[in-house]
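Problem: given the chain below (145 residues), write out its structure.
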Amino acid sequence: MLISEIIKEEESNLQNIFFHKEGLFWRAYEHSAYQVVTHLRELKVIKKCFKVAGNKEIVFVGVPQKTLSEIAANKPITENADKRITMKLETPLIEDEYNSWKNSIQFVPADKVQNAESTEKDIKKMIKNFNVAASTPIDCMLFLT
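Solution.
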């Protein structure tokens, strides 16, 4: 499924969580991401612009298969396809709460340049303090970019 199709589907999604398989991870976008974070598990949310979505800011979360299995252990799955999993929630999404949540997420542009004032010492300290054991592969990738 293309990202533009996923975003269009999410616009009318009020009571489902859609996970889409992308590489090694399962991602939930927009409304689904909000539902995951508020009803299933607190995860790191990424806000990014996608050209195929008209340069619109899109929020998403990503989890590996093992984490998805843990999250979905006691939730009803209504669809379990090769590259998509759907979970139905009992409570519908409240659009105003979703919009407030989305607006509160910090947008970090992909071409973010390291601050010129950062010294080698600061960078070494950041690397030393980064907890790899408690981070997902996406967290590690984002840390390095």
